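Known limitations

Structure tokens in this collection are predictions and should be treated as such. Users comparing against experimental data should check residue numbering before alignment. To illustrate the layout, the record for Dolichol kinase is reproduced below. The input appears on top and the generated tokens appear beneath it.
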Amino acid sequence: MAGESSSPPFVTGERVVVAVVVSRVILSLPLSLISHGFSLFLLCLSALLIELRAESSPFLLSRFTARRGASSGILLGAVTLPAVMMSKLVQLTRAISLHQAEHDELAHVTMQYWPASASCCAILIYLSVVMSQAKKDESSSSSVWLARVSLTGTVLYGASCFVSLSMISHTGLNTSLKMLWMLFHGLAAVKLIRHLLCTFPSCASIGEALLVTSGLVLYFGDFLACTIAKICEKLIPVDLISISYGIRRTETGIIVQGLLLGLLLFPVVFKFALHIYESSLTKRDGRPRNCTDTAKSVLFFVSLLSFMVVAVPSWMQFVHDFHQHPFLWVLAFVFSEPLKRLSLCIYWVMLIVVSVSRFYNISRGSKVERILLRKYYHLMAVLMFLPALVLQPKFLDLAFGAALAVFIALEIIRIWRIKPLGEPLHHFMNAFTDHRDSELLIVSHFSLLLGCALPIWMSSGFNDRALSPFAGILSLGIGDTMASMVGHKYGVLRWSKTGKKTVEGTAAGITSMMAVCYVLVPVLASMGYILSQGWWSLLVAVTATGMLEAYTAQLDNAFIPLVFYSLLCL
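Generated tokens:
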């Protein structure tokens, strides 16, 4: 066929970096996690085979309209989140050997690793089935070989999953229920990625959608496990079920999880409320009636206020023993150190107002390339989050959740053009978009904020790598920014003939990250942080992250912080 006349290269820069990262993770595993490492290897191999087949015959996944200009990214998307969870397991294993963590915590993270891994595996199986259906007339031996390898990998993956889960005795669940829990995550992931790729065409590559899907399913699954565990605590005697999984949360963690998941579920709630309202109009008038824009706006804001002020806080109080309304707890938390935290809020507001107004005026003049203009926001993220992470880390956890909640609410308003904010917000946000955004869904601001927030959230609890919470700020705010600016102005040698990334930019990014780490380490040491990271391992992590930024065509805000974080934890 014409689509198969020129096959893409087997070895690419992105695949080499992924292989280095996965190898680094697997080689760091203790003997107790060998089955986990075997499953990660199988996942990586399966993702590579499927990516090769998808890119050699692009029409096989033609039912999905991926983001233009990006490779499939299946390999990177499939291994990123499992590698992060594996690094957390390695870190907790060290903590247990030092008697600084309990086995329950290791079991808890293990029950997060396997759902994340199972979600990615299920999506890979789904993509393989889609490609097979799209090419039923394929009779080449390579297709048969790929099918056999995929089937063998799936069987071996299930066996390693079964062995690992049967060894966990701290969750109070038998192996069958654990496997059923993994199956639930896999089916949910397949359903969700189909919905995302069909509802938001041209907004993400397959790999980006895979990462988002596995992350959302893991987050929702954790929410569901938390709720089920609390119900079991109330209904079932404690000696019959262990309730450690899903309910060990801080107040801040519960509030952030409730806010974000509540807003992600709100579109379903609003559509249901809108359907009931339009049905009542039709029943009253005896003919089909659509809701007016004004009535739709009123219904939207009333539903949003009711859902977020009544329903979501009720769940928070159910799963955690708040002695007051969660929002009142937030106010009490902020005013527990009013001078520091209110001063930080004022500093953030002033920086945002000045920066956004300045950058908006520049963007309207169109004298600066959008990609460079967006890097100024990366620098702004450093100015906002770095001081807060050093001085007020707990408050920053809550602030990230609040900021993400505001972003989600505004994006819902923009997509649905809810009056009076929808249309002005759409025009304002378009001033900051580039080729990786679409008018249907603008994700850059989400990815930047999440890229900075996720390493900080995941570093809660035991953490013997003081730099790991700074993974997002360092990789995006420093490394990615310097690589883009230096490469744009001084870059001559390009990494590939078709790409724009330059050797000079990558070198600048790596050097700047190492320089900031060199300054940051003594500051953290003076504040009592645990510093056990060797400079050699730090150099490997920084170099791998810089090379990934140079070679990947995926949304770097999403992948680079997670890869850097996983390497820092080892």
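For this record: Residues 25 and 87 are 7 Å apart (CA to CA). The chain has a mean pLDDT of 83. Please report discrepancies through the issue tracker.
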